[in-house]
Specification:
- This protein has 70 residues and is α+β, with helices and mostly antiparallel strands.
- The chain has one domain (7-59).
- 39% of the residues lie in helices and 23% in strands.
- The chain is built from one helix and three strands; from the N terminus they run E-E-E-H.
- Strand 1 (7-12) and strand 2 (15-20) form a beta hairpin.
- The longest helix has 27 residues, at 33-59.
- It is elongated.
- The model has no long low-confidence stretch (mean pLDDT 95).
């Protein structure tokens, strides 16, 4: 399954800053636009993995995973 997310990015002085609008807490700051995009991709992957682990841990056992498409 391919997920699509939107990065909001902008130049702020000497830095490029950005965040993923759909996932709170995914943000980055880099010296180039390309580095920023790579950092946002990495941070997004890490946050999604962390959220999955946390959701499964909280469910404990005897749960079902259902694909939801919005």
């Amino acid at each position: 399954m391919n997920n699509h997310f939107t990065a909001i990015i902008k130049k702020d002085g000497d830095w490029w800053i950005g965040w993923i609008e759909e996932v709170k807490g995914v943000n980055a700051q880099e010296s180039t636009k390309e580095e920023l995009i790579e950092s946002l991709q990495s941070a997004l992957r890490d946050m999604l993995a962390l959220n999955r682990e946390e959701a499964r841990r909280e469910a404990v056992d005897n749960y079902e995973e259902v694909l939801i498409i919005a």
